[in-house]
Design a protein that fits this description.
The chain has ten helices and 25 strands. The protein is of the alpha/beta class. A hairpin with a 4-residue loop joins strand 19 and strand 20. The longest helix is centred in the C-terminal third of the chain and has 15 residues. The protein is globular, with a radius of gyration of 23 Å. The termini are far apart.
Length: 423
């Protein structure tokens, strides 16, 4: 039996580990278009900023693949999947057959239509090589524009700012981090960026660029304003890399359609991570949830099922965390909703620069935001995950002293026992 994993990030690695925990002998091949052993994509901007050196980028030790008896084909791209024939084609013309296949190809950067961009040099930030290319250019860069005020964009901006590059973030929405933060939390993060020296422009976008040869020298905004620019980073976000599935007849929507076993519509083919549509337990429907924990658990579920062990992915919900200039924020679940069918508990302390927001529906917490006051985020996330009815202690949720002691005795005991603690 031969199993193949396409993708060498956390979903693919988790799949390989889970597969080998059950099947230690059958053939297992892992293919990646990047030449590196598995590394942490969330650390790309930290590498650019010099906060993390090369050895700390890797997810596993150098002997990982040999120890797990995983044959690697690195620096090669899969160009086609033939679901019916159970075969894949590599960019060098080599064809491989499989009994089980895991597609863990992640996402690809979304680049909007910008006049005159074709033929010009711009940068995205989804791979280690992206960061390496920018790092080499830094000595000659004075002014940068980052298109996109999401998680990737603001971390790119922070890294460039730390490297003494004058940086402006341009965001189409009315606030930065709009999918994860409400108006107040976003304003606090914007203030943190601006206090660090990063300019932020919202409700704005890049319409065109000017330059000489392949070099961008100026970006022109939709409003008519222009900004000098030595380096343009396009960091709007990523879209699922579904090309292999779409070309093979495997069902896709926004991502690859999967069931709770990570099975696609094609027999013997699985998908996991940012390429797949997982189940959102709060929305009660499938959607792409591009977060590290979800990718890991989906990959692990796929690997176990590929090895013959029945395993179900129970679902996930959105979770984000980021720190900019000493301001930390964590958002969980349906964090941006305002009133309507929801009950909002909020506490804002401008003097301490702290903000907490709890979103409740039908006595269940469905979302939360923590800015700086993040020490109780884990407790609240656990209550969301386990769908704990909070009716009897709802009033305590937004208080400064909220903690395990605020929970009813029986619930407190069970939560502490889960953590291995004793009362």
């Amino acid at each position: 039996m031969r199993s193949i994993i396409i993708g060498n990030s956390i979903a693919g690695i988790a799949g390989a580990e889970a597969f080998r925990s059950v099947d230690g002998e059958s053939e297992l091949i892992l293919i990646s278009r990047e030449p590196y052993r598995a590394y942490s994509r969330p650390l790309i901007t930290y590498f650019l900023a010099g906060k993390v050196d090369e050895p700390k980028m890797f997810l596993r030790k150098p002997d990982f693949y040999d120890r797990l008896k995983v044959q690697t084909i690195l620096g090669r791209e899969v160009t086609r999947v033939n679901a019916g024939a159970r075969s894949i084609l590599l960019d060098n013309g080599e064809q491989l057959t499989f009994d089980r296949l895991l597609i863990a190809t992640g996402g690809v950067p979304f680049v909007p239509k910008i006049d005159n961009l074709a033929g010009k040099t711009y940068h995205t930030f989804t791979t280690w090589d992206d960061a390496k290319r920018v790092k080499e250019l830094i000595p000659s860069v004075r002014q940068a524009v980052v298109l996109g005020g999401g998680l990737i964009g603001i971390k790119v901006a922070e890294a460039l700012n730390l490297l003494h590059v004058k940086t402006t973030v341009v965001e189409l929405a009315d606030r930065i981090l709009s999918p994860a933060l409400d108006t107040r939390a976003s304003a606090m993060m914007r203030a943190a960026m601006e206090n660090a020296g990063i300019d932020v422009m919202t409700q704005e976008t890049v319409a065109s660029v000017d330059g000489h040869g392949d070099q961008i020298q100026r970006v022109n905004l939709r409003s008519g304003k222009s900004l000098p620019c030595d380096l343009l980073a396009v960091a709007i976000g990523v879209v699922p890399n579904t090309a292999l599935a779409a070309g093979s007849g495997i069902a896709t929507n926004r991502g690859i359609v999967i069931d709770d076993h990570m099975r696609t519509s094609a027999d013997g083919i699985y998908a996991a991570g940012d390429v797949a549509e997982g189940y959102d337990t709060l929305l009660g429907s499938a959607r792409v949830i591009p977060i590290w924990p979800s990718a890991y658990h989906q990959g692990r579920t796929a690997g176990l099922n590929m090895a013959g062990v029945d395993s179900i992915f129970p679902g996930q919900f959105a979770m984000n965390s980021v720190e900019i200039n000493g301001t930390c924020v964590i958002s969980v679940g349906l964090s941006t909703v305002e009133q309507g069918d929801y009950e909002i508990l909020a506490a804002h302390d401008p003097q301490k620069n702290e903000y907490r927001k709890i979103v409740i529906k039908d006595d269940l917490i469905v979302g939360a935001i923590f800015v700086n006051a993040i020490d109780r985020a884990g407790i609240v996330t656990g209550l969301i995950k386990d769908r704990i009815n909070v009716k009897n202690f709802k009033d305590a949720l937004s208080r400064n002293d909220f903690g395990y002691i605020s929970l009813p005795r029986d619930l407190r005991k069970s939560r502490l026992e889960t953590l291995g603690a004793k009362q």
